[in-house]
Design a protein that fits this description.
Elements lengths: L1 H20 L4 H6 L10 E9 L8 H23 L4 H14 L19 E7 L5 E7 L5 H11 L4 E3 H10 L13 H14 L23 E6 L5 E7 L20 E3 L4 E7 L1 H6 L2 H12 L3 H16 L3 E7 L4 E2 L6 E8 L6 E3 L5
The structure holds aspartic acid.
The site of aspartic acid has 12 residues, from strand 8.
Length: about 350
């Protein structure tokens, strides 16, 4: 009798230990995965998709792009490697890209029809489902930080225009004069595009198809990450599209279109012709294909970019990471500035064209 009782108690203890430490068991998740050799973590970034061809790219410029992408990638990776959160990793990488005049976000943003910069950004926390977004900012040096403040310090998800600028200032973010964002290269693109616009056929209201013009400028930035605790995050920041007007807002600050993250599936940041990404709810659609159709991350993203967007003429791409640390970066344009780094591949890998 005594022997059976001991056996029974031992079995109960073994079951309890087994349950508590299984992945997602209560002790396992409370302890975190910091010291676990199995912890999967990683980050991917993009700096925009579009007509990017090796033959049109001066070597020195290509070098500079690769250098700045690598710097953003390694800075973001360092955050998660040291045990920081995926949200902080995403934010760190995006701030660096916003500060670079090469990319269409923060300094160096493309210009509106009236020659000003109007900036959009968003960030989402896959652990809590919380999100923050800003549209049409004119004075906040780092729009991604404003999006984060909306998420962390307000009951709202999205703020736009003067109100969003005022909120960011109240939150203590760095404010700059609107000319801080403007670069000669973007002024030239705007000028070129406006000249082409004069040739717009009658009946088009003076609009021309943005993606078909030589001066359609790319360079939106974004990041997605999985941290050691199994939490996903995504963020995107942009100046939108050259010559935009009437308060046009693209997909980048729209949760579900340009940015999405949910721990149960994946984190996604998009870049491309925003109107198509909004209409197709691209970032969420990828997560939904994983959740409801049980597709892998790679297959879900491929299907949306090539089978949904491409036939409609929706050009662009995404970077995405799933809750196992798998990364995919498909695009249907000639190129996409992009990079990835993970615990499985801890060397920064940066690509611009189709295969390199
Ligand atoms: N998606 C951005 C927008 O439409 C632009 C881009 O990614 O190039 O505002």
């Amino acid at each position: 009798m005594f022997r059976y009782s001991i056996q029974f108690i031992a079995t109960v203890i073994l079951c309890w230990v087994g349950f508590a430490f299984k992945p997602n068991g209560f002790l396992y998740s409370n302890l975190g995965m910091n010291n676990s050799k199995e912890a999967n973590f990683g980050i991917a970034i993009h700096g925009g998709a579009g007509v990017i061809l090796k033959q049109n790219m001066p070597d020195t410029l290509e070098k500079q792009y690769r250098m700045e992408l690598t710097a953003a990638l390694t800075a973001g990776y360092a955050v998660i490697e040291k045990g920081g959160t995926s949200l902080d990793a995403v934010q760190t990488a995006i701030v660096l890209l916003e500060n670079s005049p090469l990319f269409n976000a923060g300094k160096g943003a493309v210009l509106t029809n009236s020659g000003t910069a109007e900036l959009d950004a968003s960030i989402m926390d896959g652990a809590t489902g919380k999100a923050g977004a800003v549209g049409g900012l004119k004075t906040v040096k780092n729009p991604i930080l404003a999006a984060r403040k909306v998420m962390d310090n307000s009951p709202h998800v999205m703020m736009v225009s003067a109100g969003a600028d005022a909120f960011a200032k109240e939150q203590g973010l760095e404010i700059v004069t609107p000319d801080y964002f403007i670069t000669p290269a973007r002024q030239k693109s705007l000028q070129k595009m406006q000249e082409e616009e004069k040739k717009a056929p009658p009946g088009t209201g003076g609009f021309i198809e943005l993606s078909e013009t030589a001066s359609y400028k790319i360079g939106t930035v974004g990041a997605v990450a999985l941290d050691k605790y199994g939490n996903l995050a995504a963020g995107t920041s942009t100046g939108g599209m050259t010559n935009k007007r009437y308060g046009r807002v693209g997909d980048s600050p729209i949760i579900g279109a340009g940015t999405f993250a949910a721990n149960r599936t994946c984190a996604v940041s998009a870049t491309g012709h925003g109107e198509f990404f909004i209409r197709n709810v691209v970032a969420y659609d990828i997560a939904a294909l994983m959740e409801y159709a049980a597709l892998s991350l790679t297959e879900a993203a491929r299907r949306v970019i090539f089978e949904k967007l491409l036939p409609q003429g929706g050009t662009g791409g995404v970077i995405a990471i799933d809750n196992q640390g798998n990364i995919t970066m498909p695009f249907n344009t000639q190129g996409m500035y992009r990079g990835m780094m993970s615990v499985k591949h801890p060397k920064p890998q940066v690509f611009i064209y189709q295969n390199q």
